[in-house]
Design a protein that fits this description.
This protein is mostly helical and 165 residues long. The chain has six helices and two strands, in the order ααααααββ. The longest helix is centred in the last third of the chain and has 50 residues.
């Protein structure tokens, strides 16, 4: 079991062989897609609630689920010709529905990620602004006896990788 959680994806052994029958393989893809969707749903909820720690803790579990899903999709696509006539219509419909649901969930997840990135950028900007203000308050530009800048008045302070004050 994966340390990240208790989803359906975490209970599957990654080394277990996939089925070769198209219907068995389609069921496997559905199970993995649903497990990945559960992880995505939980991750999106954590992002929307600004629970950064929960989000970060899920990344290893998510990566394992993505790799397992990708493995099953590659196997499914390799049997594309066999699927044309042999796939149970109910499984075909379930795969199509899962694809639509997953696309919607992925879009919601991307929006939550973008929102979190904007929040983190605003926080970083505020921290830099506060650091600049503190430096300016601690080292005001002054003039020495000769009319030039006082010693140490023009100290530079790095507030980020590409910005110096």
């Amino acid at each position: 079991m994966n340390a990240g959680g208790n989803t359906a994806m975490a209970t599957r052994e990654d080394s277990a062989p996939l089925g070769t029958d198209p219907n068995t393989l389609a069921r496997e893809v559905l199970a993995r897609a649903r497990g990945l969707a559960q992880i995505h749903e939980k991750e999106t909820g954590a992002l929307e609630a600004a629970q950064v720690e929960v989000f970060m803790a899920m990344q290893e579990e998510k990566l394992a689920a993505v790799e397992a899903y990708q493995e099953s999709m590659v196997a499914l696509l390799a049997q594309r010709e066999e699927l044309a006539g042999a796939l149970d219509p109910a499984l075909r419909a379930a795969l199509a529905e899962t694809q639509i649901d997953f696309a919607l969930l992925t879009q919601r997840n991307k929006e939550a990620l973008a929102r979190m990135q904007r929040c983190m950028a605003r926080l970083a900007d505020k921290i830099c602004a506060m650091a600049k203000a503190e430096v300016r308050a601690a080292s005001p530009v002054g003039y020495g006896q000769n009319g030039g800048s006082a010693p140490g008045a023009l100290r530079t302070v790095a507030t980020s990788k590409g910005e110096v004050v």
